[in-house]
């Protein structure tokens, strides 16, 4: 009996130490994560796992209430640190919950003409993935107006060629450094420009899309580099986080309604203006609806929203879906929008 009590006491002590260590990590990480607009990749990485930070804080706080019976002053400090971490992280991720208003309204019950709508499928195929059939099957099933395929190399370009019979308007810029991009469209693409906003190996597309009703919209397809370092691949080493800011500068004097879509390799947490430096111009379709975590498809513990769709005020949302795994590390994102203004 005494042996069992000794073991329980030792286990409780280990649990206390673990809770304190977790609390310190959460407190420090939460504080540093506030500096999200930074050139430091190490600080920027703390902006990604906010959901994980929040969940860990909640679990740790519950365990603390259960096991900390005789509380000392430092126990209250632990509790306050955990609560502080939840408040910091919650202030960001709350934007992706129904607790806030939708910045892009839903269409509701109002009648919509098909020619006023546009559907887009975002697919990061993962360049090293050599199984194209799930992606082809998904495109065939969803039949979007536009497919934006990212990480397209020469192999993927060849595998995706069959869909060009249905998607006659195409822009392809492939490469072997995971930043190739192809846009397939059933709708006419005009004045297509290939921009290199912050890296000569990382293309983005700018095009005018003509809807079936003859109205025109401006579509930007993006896949900027992440804050992490990858050997042999483009990254932000020695550079500022400029790509999204340059995009914001390009669209400030817009002439058409705007859609910005792609794998941004970044999280917005509902603060689109923080990424693009635009004020009340672009709106995240996720805000007020859900996380729709698109990455990582193979790791449940490392999921956050990286594939985004931002729109200007002329649009309402018809449909937003995170689709099934296609053997990539990203889940595809499907969005259908209605041009209402």
Number of strands: 12
Give the averaged pLDDT, no decimals: 87
Number of helices: 8
Largest sheet: 6 strands, mixed
Adjacency order of strands in the biggest sheet: 3-4-2-1-12-11
Assign the structural class, choosing from mainly alpha, mainly beta, alpha/beta, alpha+beta, or little secondary structure.
Answer: alpha+beta
CATH architecture title of the largest domain: 4-Layer Sandwich
Task: Identify the CATH homologous superfamily of the largest domain.
Answer: Endonuclease/exonuclease/phosphatase
Residues in helix, %? 25-40%
Tell me, what is the CATH class of the largest domain?
A: Alpha Beta
Stretches where pLDDT is under 50 for at least 5 consecutive residues are: none
CATH-defined topology of the largest domain: Deoxyribonuclease I, Chain A
Keywords: Endonuclease, Hydrolase, Membrane, Nuclease, Transmembrane, Transmembrane helix
GO molecular function: endonuclease activity
Protein name: Endonuclease/exonuclease/phosphatase family protein
InterPro entries: Endo/exonu/phosph_ase_sf, Endo/exonuclease/phosphatase
What does this structure look like?
Keywords: Endonuclease, Hydrolase, Membrane, Nuclease, Transmembrane, Transmembrane helix. This is Endonuclease/exonuclease/phosphatase family protein. The chain crosses the membrane at residues 14-36, 48-67, 74-94. It comes from Algivirga pacifica. GO terms for molecular function: endonuclease activity. This protein has 341 residues and is α+β, with helices and mostly antiparallel strands. It has two domains: 2-96; 114-339, Deoxyribonuclease I, Chain A. It has eight helices and twelve strands. It has helices spanning 2-33, 41-45, 50-67, 73-93, 133-142, 154-160, 243-251, 272-276, and strands at 117-124, 146-150, 169-173, 181-185, 189-195, 204-210, 216-222, 258-263, 283-284, 307-311, 315-322, 333-339. The strands form two sheets. It has a six-stranded mixed β-sheet with strand order 3-4-2-1-12-11, covered by helices on one side. A six-stranded mixed β-sheet has the order 5-6-7-8-10-9, with no helix packed on it. A hairpin with a 7-residue loop joins strand 3 (169-173) and strand 4. The model has no long low-confidence stretch (mean pLDDT 87).
């Amino acid at each position: 009996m005494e042996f069992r009590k000794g073991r329980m006491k030792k286990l409780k002590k280990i649990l206390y130490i673990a809770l304190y260590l977790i609390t310190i990590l959460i407190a420090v990480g939460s504080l540093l994560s506030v500096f999200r607009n930074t050139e430091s990749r190490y600080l920027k990485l703390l902006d990604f796992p906010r959901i994980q930070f929040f969940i860990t804080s909640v679990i740790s706080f519950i365990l603390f209430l259960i096991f900390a019976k005789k509380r000392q002053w430092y126990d209250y400090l632990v509790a306050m640190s955990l609560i502080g971490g939840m408040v910091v992280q919650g202030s960001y991720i709350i934007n992706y919950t129904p607790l806030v208003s939708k910045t892009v309204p839903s269409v509701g019950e109002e009648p919509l003409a098909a020619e006023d709508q546009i559907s887009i499928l975002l697919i990061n195929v993962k360049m090293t993935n050599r199984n194209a059939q799930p992606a082809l099957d998904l495109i065939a099933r969803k039949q979007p107006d536009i497919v934006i395929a990212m990480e397209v190399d020469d192999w993927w370009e060849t595998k995706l060629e069959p869909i060009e019979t249905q998607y006659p308007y195409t822009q392809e810029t492939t490469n072997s450094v995971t930043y190739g991009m192809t846009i397939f469209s059933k709708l006419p693409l005009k004045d297509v420009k290939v921009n290199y906003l912050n890296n000569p190996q990382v293309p983005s597309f700018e095009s005018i899309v003509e809807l079936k009703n003859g109205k025109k919209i401006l579509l930007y397809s993006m896949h900027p580099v992440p804050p992490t370092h990858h050997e042999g691949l483009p990254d932000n080493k020695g550079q500022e986080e400029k790509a999204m800011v340059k995009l914001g500068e390009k669209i400030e004097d817009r002439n058409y309604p705007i859609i910005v879509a792609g794998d941004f390799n970044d999280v917005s947490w509902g603060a689109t203006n923080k990424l693009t430096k635009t004020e009340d111009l672009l709106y995240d379709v996720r805000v007020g609806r859900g996380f729709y975590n698109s990455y990582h498809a193979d790791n449940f513990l490392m999921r956050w929203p990286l594939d985004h769709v931002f729109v200007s005020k002329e649009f309402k949302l018809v449909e937003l879906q995170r689709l099934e795994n296609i053997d990539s590390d990203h889940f595809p994102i499907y969005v259908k929008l209605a041009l209402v203004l």
